[in-house]
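Q: A reviewer asked whether we had any structural model of the full assembly, not just the individual parts. We don't, so I'm hoping you can provide one. Inputs are below.
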Amino acid sequence: MGRRIAIGIYAVLILLPLTMVLLTSVKTLEQTFNNPLGIPIDEGLTFANYVNIFREETMFGYFINSSVVTLSSVSLTLLLSCMIAYGIVRLGNWLGNILFVLFTLGMMVPAQVSMVPLYDLILTLGLTNSLLGLILVNIAVTMPVAVFILTGFMKTLPKELFEASTIDGATNWTTFVRIVIPLSLPSISATAIFLFVMHWNDLLYPLLFVTDNAYKTLPLALLDFQGQYETNYPMLFTGVIIASLPMVLAYVLLQRYFVAGMTAGSVKG
Amino acid sequence: MKVSKSIYLFFIPGLILYSIFFLYPTLSAFFYSFTNWDGISDAFNFIGFDNYVRAFTGDTIFLTAVENNLKFMLFVVIFQTLFALVFAIFLVKNTKLNVFWRALFFFPTILSSVSVAFIWMFMYDANIGLINTVFGAVGLGFLQQNWIGDTSIAIYSLAFTQVWFHAGQMLIIFVAGLHSIPEDLYEVAKIEGATKWQTFRKVTWPLLAPSATIVIAYTTIQSFKAFDLVFAMTRGGPNYSTEIIATYIYEIAFRNYNFGYASAISVIFMFIIALITFLQFKALRSNRVSY
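A: Here is a predicted structure for the entire assembly that you could use as a starting point for your response.
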């Protein structure tokens, strides 16, 4: 009984704020201030916020920027990390161990530690206000956790597989592409989801490197809405919904993989 | 069997990116921490340990940020861990309904910090926020607070938001941990006539230690890195009451243009995290048992 009540309270605690987001996004500012929690039955709900946000803001642009940065960062981090993990497992000696420590060291260092020199570096390289700058930094920063998860998985693959493949005359690259990648797919997909969530939601690097609207990603654009719309919650929440939509849809469809991926990634630290 | 030399090529692209965009900036944080560089001009001087001395003796805001960060961390670690553990025990069986609850409680984890910040700014809003409105409506008006505007409670309001944000993720880790405990231990406990509490104390808790280690270590690190959430919600205000180390580094570097000093604080930050991680692993390791 107590258990059910507790679960019920937790469910309300999660659902209530989310419901408020949905509800507020279809109310006017005036309705929100006069009756923040109410449903305007007489006046009806409005979708004006959704129309306005696309009219006033370059939402499509932010959306595309976020998609380009996220997709490129995730796929490149995965490719490079798989190669490194495979290299570490194939070497299997002291050098492999040293490289493993070197690459996973980054998990211990919070991103904020290097933000000052990193900003200077990006400025020097002329990569401010560019998606490429964001992608390169994203790869370097998430590589440690990806290498950590993928190496852990690839270590469990039977060594005989690699050796048999080599005897058959396959190069390291062929073995990697034909055998290691297909067999590691469960671990790769878990890592991919973890990276997706991280890169899609990242605020710090766009905040540091991007000032031009043409290169802003969704989280940074949202943050700017705050300066622009202040406590215009209907507009802010409309932004929140649009920015979260891809993740929410993916979560509903691939829920099982999400949970697996996000917990694999949480071993980080 | 000898591996072909071409295996070294697999490291090259990753190593180049990692060196340029991670190792180099992290190491140069150490270098800049001994300078008075402003981040703009080409010239700077080496000033020895001055930045470090300043942080610990002449900068009350830094000490406030450390204190706030510790408050935030303690609140989050204690409540998030307890909360996640209790609900993991409640939802441990893989019934359809429990799987649904777990998925719902996990949901906030996939949102961006900025989104979560906006949601809770609305919840906490002193005038139109849901919390104060509900308190007002049920005659508990005296409980109304300026949740993120009052310097004495703002940091805890942010910590609560962090728990809302990530408890579901920790719950899942605990569920996985609980599933790894062999069923027969519970049967033995039952036959021996152990109470629920005794079973928890002697079976569940000790065998859950590895998951607890992960949860607590991860939560700790996460609460130090809560830059996005704090920055979006309060930017460290009002009056530095929610300033944490990460937001303070940002402020010194990009508002005050004192890159040298910001680097010194970054280095201190790194050592604080390393120290806490080390102590936790030591404490939790010594707790481990196996049957």
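A: Points you may want to mention in the reply: Chain B touches chain A through 89 residues (CB under 8 Å). Chain B has a mean pLDDT of 88.
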